[in-house]
Amino acid sequence: METNGKPDRTPSPHLPFGDQRSAPFYGKDILSVRQFSREDLAYIFGVAHEMREMVARVGTFDLLKGKILANLFYEPSTRTSSSFTAAMERLGGSVIPINEVKYSSVSKGESLPDTVRTLECYADVIVLRHPEVGASAEAANYARKPIINAGDGVGEHPTQALLDLFTILEELGEADGLTVTMLGDLKYGRTVHSLARLLSLYDVKLNYVSPEILRMPPEILAEVGAQDIPQTETRRLEDVLAATDVLYVTRVQKERFEDLADYEKVRGLYVITPETLAQAKERMILMHPLPRVGEISMEVDDDPRAAYFRQMEYGLYIRMALLAMVLGKA
Ligand code: ASP
To answer: pTM of the prediction?
Structure first.
């Protein structure tokens, strides 16, 4: 794993949680899925699984008692910000929420490095969502405390990809051998950028379904292709639906369009309905990072294959695992 230039911290010999192996993520930033190996992922998912059991058994516990998270969001968020808050509080820690940067000194013109250097005086870890690609990496260059990328513009959303993969593993048992179809806005959707990269560590087939103007960026196709992953691009879901094990639907990212006329051309192009699922495998899952704005009809929600609400819940356990890990407690 990359160290991101953080000081090397020696893990505590008495880890209070997990299997007592050394804490490989202690003090580290979580910036991109590119930093993970399959071994890292197995470790993260093992901790997330334990978190799931602990939440079911006791709800809240004191693993991170006395620790403080700064939740710094320059873009809107419901799930990522509230699940990080819930994760910290379920682990006994507390949170400085900065969801409305317009009420912070950012609105006075403060730079990202200065805001981050301020918050790390008060907090042990910073979760950052920012509209610019690379903002988390920039913040990490200035911060001594761990930075967790909660979405950097159209770049990456690594914690979402981790929870997406965790969902696949918990629901379908394994990732190897699966055909994963990503549908919708593959150009601006950061979740699919991270997920395609992460899945390329496994023996998967990837299908990309989108209109011409929202195709997966060529650099991601190249990166995934370099791992010898078969990839198919099409405009028609019917071409790939029957062979799909995971259908990952995304929202067209209206806020990223330079010309709203282009958005109007592609909005509402794909809508998953019970009729769509009638053409799909019995054993498959339908995922969505949410929010949905019409891409999945509510009539689908009761289908057992609709995994998007469970997917949100898995996010809590992944974020608990990450916080415990970067703070040296797992
Ligand atoms: N919530 C996800 C994100 O922040 C997906 C979306 O907004 O469409 O990227």
So the answer is: 0.93
